[in-house]
């Protein structure tokens, strides 16, 4: 590869909060002088162009939410009881096979459908990038990189439970006769490989490199080639209201289930009960609650209800946050040095909560017992014990010490040049 700028293709399935995890790095690559394209389903294009990035729509105009609505009930039944890190089941072949059998058709293949993968590969062959970067669920990116023979990197925005789950699965498979080693994920990859002329390798599940925004003390240890990157909060285009920028007169607590959780799960807590619990607390509660979920009950003097507020602007003024464990909320809370009360069971939320507890920068509330009183008690615990703020500040400093996206853009250029791959003519 010559000294010319790189061509970098980034891809994410059609879900804006996952795409937001790519924006800081994509912008850094663009401002470093590299050519950048972001490929996704058509529904994501307004978010791509809204971030100032050049987008390429491929595949069908399906949208993630309609797909989720179609399969939500069935997925809940099949996924019921799956724990991404249950020590008692970590070596049970039937359980681990069931994990793979559930995740491949009900999520991986759903968000990486054939029209999207085929369109992504077709564009990659025409544009001939030097590097392909994919969001951790967007396996189509790994498949496209394999199809044209270029290095690829996966962006990891949380504890890497996928790799750990896969490692448990492969270890258990080795204990079986080869004829009995079913592998749904590999089979799915091989179907695409057969259409596009490449073979399976485990690198397709992890990327050549993992770009990891988790601080070392919050990561799941593994031996993968890792490129650490500082988490930079990106909440999309927004204009903070004046009150957000004013110093609070008493401890400020943010309550949010996040955009992803609100859209796919709804609010599980009863708002009126929460407001009653917080009414006499010497703190200001800022709660993100859509208008159609507020009801017409009274709102206590110390509560501010908002539809949306950019967390990167709000959290530096907060003493605590109650949230569901989503990537953007967790990352912004962590880098802002804010103690966290985590209430959620989406994907890796339990794992995040365990690591909060282990590091002393937050509290994990069992979602099954997360009523208004339990949340109030957790908030009081965090506000009254200064160790939570001290540990949250420590984690925040650890995150801010990681290489910036600008630094990572330079490192990726060096890694690609060392590979010596040049598909362009």
UniProtKB/TrEMBL annotation:
CDD domains: GT1_Gtf-like
InterPro entries associated with the record: EryCIII-like_C, EryCIII-like_N, Glycosyl_450act, Glycosyltransferase_28, UDP_glucos_trans
Alphabetical list of Pfam families matching this protein: EryCIII-like_C, EryCIII-like_N
Keyword annotations from UniProtKB, A to Z: Antibiotic biosynthesis, Glycosyltransferase, Transferase
Residue stretches making up the Erythromycin biosynthesis protein CIII-like C-terminal domain: 273-415
Keyword Transferase recorded: yes
Domain (Erythromycin biosynthesis protein CIII-like N-terminal): residue spans on this chain: 28-258
Family: Belongs to the glycosyltransferase 28 family.
NCBIfam families assigned to the protein according to its UniProt record, in alphabetical order: glycosyl_450act (TIGR04516)
Protein name: DUF1205 domain-containing protein
UniProt source species: Pseudonocardia kongjuensis
Organismal lineage: Bacteria, Bacillati, Actinomycetota, Actinomycetes, Pseudonocardiales
């Amino acid at each position: 590869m010559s000294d010319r700028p790189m061509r970098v293709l980034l891809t994410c399935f059609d879900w804006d909060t996952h795409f937001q995890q790519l924006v800081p790095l994509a912008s850094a690559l663009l401002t470093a002088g590299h050519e950048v394209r972001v490929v996704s389903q058509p529904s994501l294009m307004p978010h791509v162009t809204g971030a100032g990035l050049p987008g390429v729509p491929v595949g069908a105009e399906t949208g993630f939410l309609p797909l989720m609505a179609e399969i939500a009930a069935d997925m809940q039944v099949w996924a019921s009881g799956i724990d991404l890190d249950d020590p008692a089941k970590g070596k049970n072949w039937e359980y681990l096979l069931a994990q793979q059998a559930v995740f491949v058709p009900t999520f991986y293949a759903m968000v990486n459908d054939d029209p999207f993968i085929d369109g992504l590969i077709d564009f990659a062959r025409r544009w001939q990038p030097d590097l392909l970067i994919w969001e951790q669920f967007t396996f189509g990116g790994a498949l496209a990189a394999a199809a044209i023979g270029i290095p690829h990197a996966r962006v990891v925005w949380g504890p890497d439970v996928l790799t750990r789950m896969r490692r448990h699965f492969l270890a258990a498979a080795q204990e079986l006769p080869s004829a009995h080693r079913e592998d749904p994920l590999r089979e799915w990859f091989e179907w695409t490989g057969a259409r596009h002329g490449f073979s399976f390798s485990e690198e397709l599940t992890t990327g050549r490199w993992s770009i990891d925004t988790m601080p070392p003390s919050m990561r799941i240890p593994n031996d993968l080639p890792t490129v650490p990157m500082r988490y930079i909060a990106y909440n999309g285009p927004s204009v903070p209201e004046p009150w957000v920028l004013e110093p609070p007169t008493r401890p400020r607590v943010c309550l949010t289930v996040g955009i992803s959780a609100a859209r796919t799960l709804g609010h599980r807590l009863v708002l009126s009960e929460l407001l009653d619990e917080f009414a006499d607390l010497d703190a200001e509660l800022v709660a993100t609650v859509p208008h159609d979920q507020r009801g017409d009950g009274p709102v206590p003097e110390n509560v501010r209800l908002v539809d949306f507020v950019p967390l990167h602007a709000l959290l530096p003024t907060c003493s605590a946050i109650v949230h569901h464990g989503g990537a953007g909320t967790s990352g912004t809370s962590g880098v802002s040095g804010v103690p966290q009360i985590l209430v959620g069971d989406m994907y890796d939320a339990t794992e995040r909560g365990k690591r909060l507890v282990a590091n002393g920068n937050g509290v994990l509330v069992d979602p099954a017992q997360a009523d208004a009183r339990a949340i109030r008690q957790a908030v009081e615990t965090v506000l009254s014990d200064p160790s939570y703020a001290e540990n949250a500040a420590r984690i925040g400093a650890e995150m801010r010490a990681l290489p910036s996206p600008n630094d990572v853009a330079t490192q990726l250029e060096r890694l690609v040049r060392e590979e010596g791959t040049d598909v362009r003519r």
